[in-house]
Design a protein that fits this description.
Layout lengths: L6 E6 L6 E8 L3 E5 L5 E14 L2 E6 L2 E5 L5 E5 L5 E8 L1 H11 L6 E3 L3 E3 L1 H15 L3 H19 E3 L8 H15 L7 H7 L4 H12 L3 H18 L4 H8 L4 H11 L4 H16 L6 H12 L4 E2 L5 E2 L2 H4 L3
Antiparallel strand pairs: 1-2, 2-8, 3-7, 4-5, 4-6, 4-7, 4-8, 6-10, 9-11, 12-13
Length: 320
């Protein structure tokens, strides 16, 4: 839960390795500036989400997708009084690269060109992935995820630029980041960090923000939450994770975790720990049921060309 009239569930499905899943309805929720290690593919069902990305506010309403590449700073909040309801999948860079190599002609590191795409068809696919994962239908979940990512890359794909450390400011920012990663639980002050790197506090602040999209203290909080997630996934308790990454106590972790991930760390850990045990107790769906679900979603089985790439079916090539 995320507050009165707000709901959120963040989980994983064992048959979709490398992919996080989310369903949420937020009204007053505000996501602070943060990044993700995975891609964000958020399908808006109702309302409007506003997120700051690339130096400007982006608006995603019902039938649109909010798309964020890995390690790209962004925020999030409601764009209308009633908030927004959405489902999201977070595939890892490795998952997206594998799909891109098999189904597109993109070369280099694949990613999304624009942060908002109006495409109700793919919005429906994302929600079908979540439903299939909920129902323990591995065939449908995997298939629909691949179709959705392929479609997004074809409609809005490109090659991500390689982040090269060229300028003196970028090199200093990279060194500062390495220090903060190493000393996450006991970081230096901005003044001490700048002095150790042979620069001034404001010069370091400006270089770090230009390179990573946020000041060092915000980046550190984001990085602490990332590391806490990995510890929670490994079975560490929230209280132990909080101290390990440098938060003063569990409430301190709770506050920042919810503002970045969208759910408290305890709820996050329970879902990811228990959901697979519950799914294994469900009976396996029949082949006929699986085929019916896929047929209702996007019509006949997608064709492949001689190279093994997906060929668009009539329902894929146009609006639903």
């Amino acid at each position: 839960m995320a507050g009165r009239d707000e709901r959120a569930r963040h989980w994983q499905y064992a048959e979709l390795p490398g992919v996080d899943l989310l369903r949420a309805r937020y009204i007053r929720k505000t996501f602070v500036r943060h990044t993700h290690e995975h891609f964000v593919i958020a399908a808006i069902a109702d309302g409007v989400e506003v997120f700051h990305h690339g130096g400007a506010d982006q608006y995603a309403g019902a039938g649109a997708l909010a798309l964020v590449n890995p390690d790209t700073s962004h925020t999030g909040r409601a764009g209308v009084p009633e908030g927004w309801r959405y489902g999201a999948v977070y595939p890892s860079p490795e998952v997206v690269a594998e799909i891109a190599a098999e189904t597109t002609t993109l070369r280099g590191t694949p990613g999304f060109a624009r942060p908002v795409l109006d495409d109700p068809y793919t919005v429906g696919l994302v929600h079908q992935v979540l439903r299939a994962a909920d129902e323990g239908n591995a065939l449908a979940a995997d298939t629909l995820l691949r179709v959705a990512v392929t479609r997004l890359l074809r409609l809005n794909g490109g090659t991500l630029p390689q982040r090269e450390v060229r300028t003196a400011g970028a090199r200093i920012a990279a060194r500062a980041r390495a220090v903060l990663e190493e000393r996450m639980a006991g970081p230096p002050t901005l003044e001490r960090l700048a002095a150790d790197l042979g620069t001034s506090p404001f010069a370091l602040l400006r270089a770090f923000r230009d390179t990573y999209g946020m000041p060092p203290h915000a980046w550190l909080t984001d990085s602490r939450v990332r590391r806490a997630r990995r510890l929670l996934d490994a079975g560490t308790t929230p209280a132990e994770a909080a101290l390990a990454v440098g938060f003063t106590d569990q409430p301190h972790l709770n506050r920042h975790f919810a503002r970045i991930v969208g759910v408290p760390p305890g709820a996050y850990q329970r879902e990811r720990k228990n959901v697979q045990d519950a799914r294994r107790r469900l009976p396996l769906p029949s082949d006929a049921w699986q085929n019916g679900q896929l047929s209702r979603t996007y019509g006949p089985t997608p064709r492949t060309d001689l190279t093994g790439r997906w060929s668009a079916t009539p329902s894929e090539s146009g609006s639903p």
